[in-house]
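User: Structure please.
Assistant: Input sequence and predicted structure:
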Amino acid sequence: MMLDKSVTTQRNSNLAFRRRQAEKLFRNGLCDESLAICNEILITFPKNLSIQKLKKEMLKQQHKNLAKTPASQPIDLNINTTKLLESEDIVISLIETDPENKNLWILLGEIYRQSDKISYAMQCFNKALEISKNDPDIIYEIGKTFTKVNDLGNAYKSFQLALSFRPNDSMIFYEIGLIYDKIRKFNKAKEAFLKSIELDQNNHFSHTLLGIYAMQVDGNAKEALKHFKHALQVAPNEINMYNNVVCAYLDLGENEKVLQLFKQLELNNDLKLTEETKKHLNFQHGLALIGLGEIDKGRKLYQDRIYMQGVVHTDVNSIPCNRLENKSDAFKKKILVLREQGVGDQIYLLGLLKKFAHDTECEIVLDVEPRLLSLMQRSFPDFKILDYDVSDDVGADFWIAYADLAYFQKLSKTTRNISGPYIKVNDDLFNFWNDTLPNPGLRVGLAWRSGNMDPKRVKNYTELSDWSNILRKENVCFVCLQYEYDENEINDLPENIRNRLYVPNFDLKDDFDNLAAVMKNCDLVIGPSSAPVHQASAIGTNTIVYTLKGKNAYSCGLWLEHNEYQDISYSNCKNITFDQYNRATLVKRVDELIDMNFK
């Protein structure tokens, strides 16, 4: 196929104009701007020799400029890293003409370090140190090189030596903080990062690490947000800064501010996004929209979650069929349904599956968590259930992930009767536990946290001791549903209360069949958003789920209107939002609900 002659002429004309533009910028000393135009041209015309020659001249001039940096002034090695990697030969040729220029040796060392040629990098830095003895900039670069190869002892010595010459250098304290972080001395690391921002309030690297510590070590999203926002203000073109602020806002349930930030992000044309970063941001953006009840907008962005590490348990790129985009295309087809996220999410979402199968008259092949195999085989007798790697061809026409069901069933805060209890309990186990569990009048299952004790998750939970007053209730048998509990949590209760808590003698984390039978024998189950509590809802037992305000994306925005609301999927489930600093109010309200509904 030949291009239209007018099109070819226009392309050549545009190329000539862009080349002249680049040359003019170069003559005026604007190397970076000129180089950017050359790189754009080479994307379309990668074999254009004249542009390649012009680019090489620009790179050479850039390095000459860097080489002229006064000995007393540190050169900026961070701004041109990708360009440096292209220009090893140029720097070497410059060194041949000026072998005593320490900046050229530092520059070459940085090129080698970025290329993972560590021994060459060290030789260059040591040569620079011969030229400029006790130079703290060179000693700092040596320390960074030791850190890169995990030689933390020598890295620490190098940074301490650099500090002796430059005691108020913020970046040296930042690097020392990274060393303490690597050896898991988090308090020491935090001290170093705090010292770093004391010396330079605009050190966004240290602000970022302090924000991460606040989120992941202290579980303090408010403190994290302060650091992340400051880092974003200093580095507005760093996409990771946006992502950190988004994570903090989501953790605080401030979804509206997430949307405002994404509007700001869309207006920033200087951001350079990788495909992986785009997918991660789309996931966060979609989650915020869904949490606010904007399901259709949110779903389009939330689709990319499947490409994020740890979300879907199968490599979707290996599945020999396409993802289902329209519900109508599933009619009388074979659909592979892939598990995603945690077990609690999986149990919750599968309440939508039967109606989807009924509406589309499709054949279902269901991928399940191995621990749930017998439970799901009993609950979905008409579906083919798999608990192994489903990357092999199962003959499906399309595949979907569990959370796609919410979109296809048009789940929203106003929908009703598209989901509901579906788990079938083993009759023999049900009868066994009916006979075994104490029955003074009322049986209440209690979980107080999830097994995930990540500091940023802990604030979503309560402690067993918070429930002491409820555990005193007469004519109630409380059944422990908390897996991986610490025996001290129970032993620390007063004896008269401890004796009221019945602990079943099976694996509460992995034995879902016995767990289902126990919960089916309960009149009520109470707990945070976790696998046992979602399973209780899916069995049909009355359930109270407590969450921090704004943290339940499955509410589709109901949390904005109510502190208590009926779950949109399970009519037997009541959601209560609570304040992490006032758990007593939550416990008091649960106590009232027990008295109102079960007396």
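Residues 1-13, 69-82 have pLDDT under 50 and may be disordered.
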